[in-house]
């Protein structure tokens, strides 16, 4: 393994600076024009073709673009990681077809995030952090550590918080660098519109618990409120970050939080409407 190979890096926005001691961030009940989605490309990748193929996924309402990549490490020489900002509702088959114009095979990735102290991982036998972490499991495709925010990108359904902690501990325990910190959380505190049928509220709870990342959900029909706990574990699409003006390194992955659109869709399917954020 040698230095990470950067073919093309187009950083979009700066990473979020999360305080590990702070309360979970609130998710606003707003829909987005675009979202972030993450992919692993296998085989030879043609950057120019990739840019054109991704741009072809644009709609009248929203532009599709490369947020970062393609980038790879020598521990997985056949794979390249890309983060794409795509219009909401872009179908997986459409993305796969577009990416095949630039790479023989693509896989959409899931991600898990931990917030710990700001640090750098020690090199192991001359290999840097991303090289070591991406190489620790066959299903790992990318790893980013910025401002203490550690994010793992991997083949969906293969890894989770417990597996990642265990494998990371095995890798870095001998170097006293195995503490990842807390799993990142966000919260939903939304006011619901009236009338609100209690049965619809229960249906909404069940629908929300099927949304990736929703760990707990509670609808109070009498108070017309929804509260939910969001864990950044096994998420797929992510809300695009808010522009901060902060520069990000070529190795940085654009920060993204829970995509509220998924929760709003679940509520809509249960015929429950949102009137706004609680307390506003």
Structure characteristics:
globular, alpha+beta, 6 helices, 31% strand, single chain, disordered N terminus, five-stranded mixed beta sheet, 280 residues
Form type:
globular
Please state the CA-atom Rg, rounded to the nearest Å. Answer: 19 Å
Q: Could you list the spans in which at least 5 consecutive residues all have pLDDT below 50?
A: 1-22, 244-250
Tally of extended strands? 14
**Could you spell the SSE succession in H and E letters?**
EEEHEEHEHEEHEEHEEEHE
The end-to-end span amounts to 52 Å
Mean pLDDT: 86
Our count of helices gives 6
Largest sheet: 9 strands, antiparallel
Structural class designation = alpha+beta
- The helical percent reads 10-25%
- Percent in strands: 25-35%
Describe the 3D structure.
The structure is a single chain. The chain is of the alpha+beta class and 280 residues long. 20% of the residues lie in helices and 31% in strands. The chain is built from six helices and 14 strands. The longest helix is centred in the middle third of the chain and has 12 residues, at 161-172.
């Amino acid at each position: 393994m040698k230095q990470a190979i950067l073919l093309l890096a187009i950083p979009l926005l700066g990473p979020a600076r999360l305080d590990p001691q702070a309360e979970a961030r609130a998710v606003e009940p707003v829909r987005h024009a675009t979202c972030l989605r993450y992919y692993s490309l296998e085989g030879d990748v043609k950057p120019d073709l990739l840019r054109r193929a991704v741009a072809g996924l644009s709609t009248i309402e929203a532009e599709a673009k490369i947020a970062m990549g393609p980038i790879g490490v020598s521990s997985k020489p056949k794979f390249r990681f890309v983060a794409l900002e795509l219009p909401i509702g872009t179908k997986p088959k459409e993305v796969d077809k577009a990416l095949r114009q630039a790479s023989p095979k693509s896989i959409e990735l899931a991600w898990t995030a931990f917030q710990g102290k700001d640090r750098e991982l020690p090199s192991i036998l001359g290999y840097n952090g991303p090289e070591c972490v991406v190489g620790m499991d066959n299903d790992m495709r990318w790893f980013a550590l910025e401002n203490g925010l550690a994010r793992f990108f991997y083949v969906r359904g293969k890894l989770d918080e417990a597996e990642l902690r265990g494998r990371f501990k095995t890798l870095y325990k001998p170097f006293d660098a195995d503490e990842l910190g807390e799993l990142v959380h966000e919260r939903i505190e939304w006011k619901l519109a009236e009338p609100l049928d209690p049965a619809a509220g229960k249906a909404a709870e069940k629908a929300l618990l099927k949304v990736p990342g929703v760990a707990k959900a509670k609808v109070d029909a009498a108070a017309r409120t929804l509260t939910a706990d969001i864990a950044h574990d096994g998420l797929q699409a992510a809300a695009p970050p808010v522009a901060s003006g902060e520069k990000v390194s070529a190795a940085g992955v654009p920060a993204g939080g829970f995509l509220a659109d998924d929760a709003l869709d679940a509520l809509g399917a249960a015929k429950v409407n949102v009137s706004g954020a609680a307390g506003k």
